[in-house]
Design a protein that fits this description.
Length: 125
């Protein structure tokens, strides 16, 4: 490989790394998680929370799967602490983007944008 080709390869790899880094959301400080009253959530989210509190039944096969918190938007805990549940989206043919993430300590988080932003659910007003 000549010097020009090596330089072009190195430059393209550098730009690819920058592009990949730019697409990845930076970790957000945990204290930026906003609270929301359960009464302000869509009815489907409130129904999902009721199912979680009752232990089921759950309509989606992935309900109860471990949520890895890889983006670190939620407080850090050991793997397996968080479980995710689908919130039905009317008119959506797939699972959609809405989820409830429940912590083993009883805390509940809601996301309507597929884990990009969470709101901690306050169940008692």
């Amino acid at each position: 490989m000549n010097a020009r080709a090596a330089f072009a390869l190195a430059l393209s790899l550098a730009f690819a790394g920058v592009a990949a880094h730019a697409q990845k959301a930076p970790p957000r400080p945990i204290d930026t998680v906003v609270e929301v009253a359960a009464s302000e959530l869509p009815p489907e989210a409130r129904d999902t929370i009721k199912r979680i509190r009752k232990g089921g039944p759950f309509p989606y096969a992935r309900d109860g799967a471990v949520f890895g918190n890889r983006e670190r938007h939620l407080p850090p805990e050991k793997r397996g602490y968080y479980k995710e549940y689908t919130v039905k989206t009317p008119g959506e043919r797939t699972r959609g983007a809405r989820r409830i993430v429940a912590g083993a300590g009883g805390e509940i988080y809601y996301t309507d944008d597929h884990y990009n932003r969470f709101r901690r659910v306050r169940e008692k007003d």
